[in-house]
Design brief:
about 500 residues; disordered C terminus; mainly alpha; 20 helices; about 75% helix; Growth Hormone, Chain: A
């Protein structure tokens, strides 16, 4: 085990690598109008700048996580960083729309490799409960706050320079991460003797996930009741059922089904799907509200998200770990998600002539506090019960649930917003009021979903999230026994 200083340096390198990946799920949104104008995208084709990334990213998460367990997490992480960085160069210098879409798809492949194993590497580096909670707070900020940072950075780079820099900024970061990761990350251990990759299972689940993502991200354009949407969804369901049947009988399954007998693993996936759906919608729709209703430009939209990033950073890095160590995982998770639900509810009442300080900033701050507090316990719940040799797989499962939840939630809430807007216009409502009415109903639905995630997590998660915690979610004493008083000093400062 590396010494404490090297462990934390390794954590920062892993988080910086993962931040590149998370940023690219949202950094593009503000720049889409500029990309459309420069490369001649049609309105329908423009969505593939986002969808191509989501398609390969979501499709290869589980496979990447399992490859990390079999081939070595460090090796897969380094491969992912290289692929993502090279693809970022291709995207930043793209001469045509087709080139950019292909580059985004390759970015998704590299991003899946990095995201699927980064969490597993962190779990292996930090075994002591207090240190792990603090480390997960840092990683939680990257995963939850990356969306806000992405909108901020996308707006600043597009407003001050050109859209090309939202991709080219990854190049020096990727090179630095690769160099440092090679030197600092612990060497991969020996793979378990006799274990092989479940190739049929890999083909089935990767195909199922890619087809499902394709159907979901195209649902708004094609129509949710159309064959173009329902056909792929049905096909994905058949493939996924075949994958489950395969895993039940395979000697070395890609995803051992026993994982889902662990209560916290299963419940955290449900919470993750609901929470990611609400959060992705919040980032996307709030940016659209600022652009289409309040008429902010790209730079103004980016700066508007600065308070969210700062508050989320403070709560993730300085507060979340302390709350977990003192109260366990359930109370901080439920409280954080309820604050996020309140943030969405506040945006549901934002008017056409909204004022940033009154109608936007309170929601930004509440989302920052809620996400900053909640993400750490979600990750701890998902990873705390898993055996070390399957941590890469569990990391892939966690990321898959968040990605699928985010893609599905975004598609559903945008579809709901569009339906409401069209309905209001048909009734004679002015266009700007109709657009805002669509946003309001989508935010309200997101608030309900976030509240449901809070209730499910608070009620069903098992209190003990990881080794060294007592039956109530608090820490054991220094000898590994439960501290009966519950009054042990838990400060991590």
């Amino acid at each position: 085990m590396a010494d404490l200083k090297n462990r934390w340096l390794a954590l920062y390198v892993l988080c910086l690598g993962d931040l590149m990946i998370v940023l690219d799920s949202s950094i593009v949104n503000v720049a889409l109008p500029s990309i459309k104008e420069d490369l001649g995208f049609s309105p329908s084709a423009l969505a593939w700048v986002v969808n191509a990334y989501l398609l390969t990213f979501g499709g290869f998460l589980l496979l990447s996580g399992r490859l990390g367990d079999l081939l070595g997490n460090k090796r897969v992480f380094l491969w992912g960083v290289v692929s993502f960085t090279v693809a970022s160069v291709a995207c930043g210098l793209a001469p045509s729309a087709e080139w950019l879409v292909i580059g985004r798809a390759i970015q998704g492949l590299g991003g899946a490799a990095v995201s699927a194993v980064a969490l597993s590497l962190i779990i292996g580096l930090f075994e002591e409960p207090g240190e792990r909670a603090k480390a997960m707070g840092v990683f939680g900020f990257v995963m939850s706050g990356g969306g806000a940072v992405g909108v901020l950075l996308g707006g600043v780079l597009t407003g001050l320079f050109t859209w090309n820099w939202i991709f080219l900024v990854n190049v020096p970061i990727g090179i630095g991460v690769w160099v440092l990761a090679r030197r600092i990350l612990p060497a991969d251990g020996e793979a378990a003797a006799g274990q092989r990759l479940d190739v049929p299972g890999a083909i089935l689940v990767t195909s199922a996930l890619m087809i499902a993502v394709y159907a979901v991200v195209g649902g708004n354009e094609a129509g949710w009741s159309s064959f173009r949407t329902l056909g792929p969804l049905a096909g994905a369901a058949v493939l996924f059922a075949a994958f489950i049947a395969r895993e039940a009988t395979a000697k070395d399954p890609l995803m051992p089904l026993r994982l889902f007998k662990l209560r916290n693993v299963s419940v955290s996936q449900v919470v993750g799907v609901l929470w990611a759906g609400a959060m992705f919608a919040w980032f996307f729709l709030s940016a659209l509200y600022l652009e289409q209703v309040l008429r902010y430009d790209a730079l103004q939209i980016g700066l508007a998200f600065l308070p969210t990033s700062l508050v989320m950073a403070y709560c993730s890095l300085r507060l979340s770990d302390k709350l977990v160590m003192k109260f366990g995982i359930r109370a901080p998770l439920a409280t954080g998600l309820m604050l996020a639900a309140a943030s969405l509810a506040l945006f549901a009442r934002a008017p056409v002539n909204g004022n940033y300080w009154i109608d936007v900033l309170p929601s930004m701050i509440l989302l920052g506090i809620g996400a900053g507090i909640a993400f750490n316990p979600v990750l701890l719940a998902a990873m705390g019960d898993v055996e070390p040799h399957e941590s890469g797989l569990a990391s892939g499962v966690v990321n898959t649930s968040f990605m699928m939840g985010g893609a599905l939630g975004l598609a559903v809430f945008v579809s709901l917003s569009t339906w409401r807007t069209d309905s209001l216009i048909a009734d004679g409502t002015a266009q700007i009021e109709a657009i805002n009415g669509g946003f309001q109903i989508a935010f309200a639905a997101g608030a309900v979903v976030a509240a449901a995630a809070a209730i499910i997590g608070g009620a069903l998660l098992r209190p003990q999230p990881m080794p060294g915690m007592d039956a109530h979610g608090g820490p054991a004493d220094g000898d590994g026994d439960v501290d009966p008083t519950g009054e042990k000093d838990l400060s991590l400062a």
